[in-house]
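Troubleshooting log. The previous structure file for this entry was overwritten by mistake, so regenerating from the original sequence record. Sequence copied from the archived sheet and checked twice against the printout by T.R.
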Amino acid sequence: MKEIVSHTSMRGIAAFAVMMIHFKGILLPVIEIDRHTAFLVAAVGFVDLFFMLSGFVLSYCYRKRFLANGVRAELWPFLVNRLGRIYPLHLLTLLIMAALARDQIEMAWIPVLAENLLLIHAWGLQSVFVLNFPSWSISVEWAAYLLFGLLVILSVGRRFGAGCIVLVIMSYGAYWYLTSMAGVPWERLSLLRGIPAFALGIWAYTIYKRADALPVAIISILQILGVVAVILLMHLNAPLLFLVPAFAVLVIFTATDRGVLAGFLSWRGFQLLGLLSYSIYMLHVPVWRISAVFWGKFVGSPPLEPVPAVLFFLTCVAATLGSAYLSYHLFEVPMRRLIRRAGRKRVAV
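Regenerated output below.
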């Protein structure tokens, strides 16, 4: 199917922003970014953009097949394909982080490791994510994949859009109250973010072609308004309840790769980031930890002066991007093909 270039680039920008959230502390000797803007604090919301893009793109690729052939016929190949996409790198990074933390691992860690291996660690089971902690969103994605067939069936209904909007308001409203007012760890509530955003992405797919009928000038204006809203809301650290609708505007009105924002997102650098987005997202913490070990051994740790801090920051960014490129071509793609072949053989049998 034709790639939605804008969505690929958006994934890359989102992955890079999440990496910056975790790397910003390295630059504290130079600048305390959060004193000037809450943008990187609120950039955790880019994970919700991932969920929404996932729901949209998977509908774009699979929804017609599910409806034509039935959920029973399509669900197993779908799950095999998705597992082949997410699990190999998840397992690799989990093992790397476990090896780095081997001196701290005790018997009490066994359930945590098991939950991570089963991709259920973000299903309300843990109050703090450890090891390769960004993988919490992959656990939520897996839950969404398991629900995909049901959501596709529901998406045929005329009230699906209204249901998604109500679900988003209720879930994100509850998430805000429980985390901000009741003191519940956000880690326990991850599904309240992922499933509604994923469902909203599916609904966005069902209506995006209506946007294609609009003049390109109107599409461009709506894209610009969406970008301004996202930047402003993140600068003010607004609740996710307000940020998610702004993301939905961007997802819907860039889906046909028309308009000024789509032109901006067509830059090859953004497309490359999008291609490597999963690798960047999953590898940046392990690369950061390994870089810190080598930096401490050969240079001195931690880098508390401005120049060493900038050098260490640039080292982490460059090492992450380089590792992501190698991982994608030498590990992710081959493992994906291997798992898909194994899945097809089972279906054939």
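The first helix runs from residue 5 to 23. Archived copy saved in two places this time.
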